[in-house]
Amino acid sequence: MESVALFTAAQRRELFLETAARKRMTPSIVEKDFWVCWALGRLFANSTLSRLLMFKGGTSLSKVFNLIHRFSEDIDLVLDWRVVVGQENPMGQRSASKQAILNQAMNDNAMNYICSELLAKISSAVTPTCHCEIASEDLFVVNIQYPAAFSDSYLRPNIRLDIRPLASWIPSHDYSIRSYASEAFPEFFLNPSCNVKSICAERTFWEKATILHHEAHRPEGSAQQLRYSRHYYDLAMMALSPVKNAALKDLELLNDVVEFKRRFYSRGWARYENAIPGSFRLVPRGHVLAAVETDYAQMRNMIFGRYPNLDEILSHTANSVFIVMTTTNYNDNS
User: Fold this and answer.
1) Taking the alpha carbons of 41, 65, 107, 92 in that order, is the dihedral positive or negative?
2) What's the CA gap between 194 and 191, in Å, rounded?
3) Cis upstream peptide for 192 (omega within 30°)
4) What mean pLDDT is predicted for residues 85-102?
């Protein structure tokens, strides 16, 4: 990655244009993808940051596992909560009210740590090629400004590192990733891949499924967040891969994800207690379905190649629901 990062702006522009033509993507997406991979490589090549951070979320499904065919421009990172929790055990037994107080304290401490210490560590890893700063609207987010040669009305002109402490590191492994440019023109890269530590896809499957479950129970008058249709697309694509069967064979992992959500992201209306075989719900209705329809249409330019319509997406998620609902002892049948 470093060899191309050191290219002149004109050389990088030409490389990204040629890659876009080969990949049938926009040059701005190819460019941002390169800098996403470059940033991840820099973070996990740093001995301090690689101990503090773990890669997760939709971008990992694209870059690590090649499970989805949409461009995910943000980097979700888990911060090792040991640096912000003090002497408390976040998984220890306590009342719901005391857990909520601890959760808030961990988040507050994490924001302070990101601003006072972590930002400087990240900055030292990416400068002088890029520079970074805390997002004014969200103190959990570090924005990395890269030397852009292209503009796009939909893409943000920076890479968002969304860094949060309230997430699990288990299970995770070491993986390698490649940019679209290094796939198309490996001869221009001294090292066409870089190494990252990432949450395994099976956990992400269940995390996406539980997001859809709580969205299926979202009450009237409560608006769904923007860009949430990506979770429906992601789970549908995972449902077409071997990851689905691997996840369905590991219902203990589902239980762990559900318990984690109930402890750290408690919502009475989410019905996490029903995110079990026999009562799982993933398909939205009413105002939530309407929000997903609108949002998914706006996401079209972020999906490469074939764009599955929403009915197809929901059909695949419904199939996942059917299997989960009817397969209490999934290990008996593949």
Assistant:
1) negative
2) 7
3) no
4) 93
What six digits make up the tokens of 29? Answer: 């997406």
Residues 133, 123: Cα–Cα separation, whole Å: 8
- How is residue 263 written in tokens? 């402890």
Closest of 35, 29, 5, 8 to residue 17, by C-alpha: 29
DSSP 55: E
Q: Which two tokens stand for residue 253?
A: 């992992």
Pair of tokens at residue 148: 């852009």
**In DSSP terms, which residues pair with 283 in a beta bridge?**
none
Query: Which of 132-136, 244-248, 274-278 is predicted with the least confidence, judged by mean pLDDT?
Result: 274-278
Which residues are CB-neighbours of 241 under 8 A, at least 6 positions away?
67
Measured distance CA(4)–CA(15) in Å, rounded: 9
Encode burial over 181-207: b for 16+ CB neighbours within 10 A, e otherwise. bbebbeebbeebbbebbbbbbbbbbbb
Give the whole-number percent of the chain exceeding pLDDT 90.
83
Q: Is 86 exposed, middle or buried (0-12, 13-18, 19+ CB in 10 A)?
A: exposed
Which tens digits make up the pLDDT trace of 249-288?
A: 999 999 999 999 999 999 989 999 999 877 889 999 999 9
Letter for the amino acid at 125? Answer: A
Cβ atoms of 32 and 73 closer than 8 Å = yes
Q: Which of 250, 248, 275 is nearest to 261 (CA)?
A: 275
Tokens describing residue 100: 């909520």
Domain positions in the chain = 2-199, 202-332
Dist CA 333 CA 313 (whole Å)? 25
pLDDT digits (tens, 9 = 90+) for 167-188: 999 999 999 999 999 999 999 9
E-strand spans in the chain?
53-56, 75-79, 131-135, 138-145, 159-164, 172-178, 193-199
